[in-house]
Amino acid sequence: MHVHDLGRFAGAAGAAQGILAGLIGQIGRQDFGQGLLHLSRCAVGADHVTAFAASAGGRIETVVAENGGPRRVARAVAERYVRRHWHSDPVTRLLDGRSDRRIIVDIDAADVDKGEYRHECYAAISLDHRLSVAESRGERTMRLNFYRGRGEDFRDEDIDRLGGMADMLLAMLWRHEETAPARSTEDPEALFNTRLANVAPELSDRERQVCALIALGVTSEGIGLRLDIGLNTVLTYRKRAYARLGISSQNELMRRVMM
Length: 259
What we know:
With 259 residues, this protein is an alpha+beta fold. It has eleven helices and six strands. A six-stranded antiparallel sheet has the order 1-4-5-6-2-3, sandwiched between helices. Helix 1 packs antiparallel against helix 2 (32-44), helix 8 crosses helix 10 (231-245) and helix 9 crosses helix 10 (231-245). The radius of gyration is 20 Å and the shape is elongated. The protein starts with a strand and ends with a helix.
């Protein structure tokens, strides 16, 4: 693991500033995360990006969680990370009790001491290298993570390029976190769960949870990560629930949920 003070990168952004122009216009919008993913690909060749805001009292908010490829797992992995592994992260320890600190950290999976954390947040989704930008402002912190797969370590020029953009990226993340539309007080997952309980009381609690997540468009792999169960178990619950409901597709499930 290598830690760098962001002060040494001042004025080093160069042409990378041009990549940020489109992202600035997406601050506060739902497509901000996708814009940040596009930037991560162009700037440092990363195809998985997350950002978290932590406040005094232990509240941690997932600001961005996006990845490329057919398996959309970033959000589920981010939620598991916040729930189970936040305090095992080396960056958390680096910022603990330090106000007004700004750093960039190059981390390999091998730097992670806790085996369960390393498996669930790196190995299980074929990631091995992470480049993080973090800033503490009093009792609040913002953390932005870019990930690469095995054998694709970040180079010095990637660190320099990201360091040159760090001030702007952090400013945009703080602003996005402040201005993004407030989340509905009615959680869609909870809403679907309630509707299923009303229209399909024959479902077990776990079958209802799986169906609610299917209705939200979460993949089977994502459901497994969210509920901390294996893929085969997810498929078994889905098959059993569909049989009880007399349906065979997600579209039919949606019609039942919206009845």
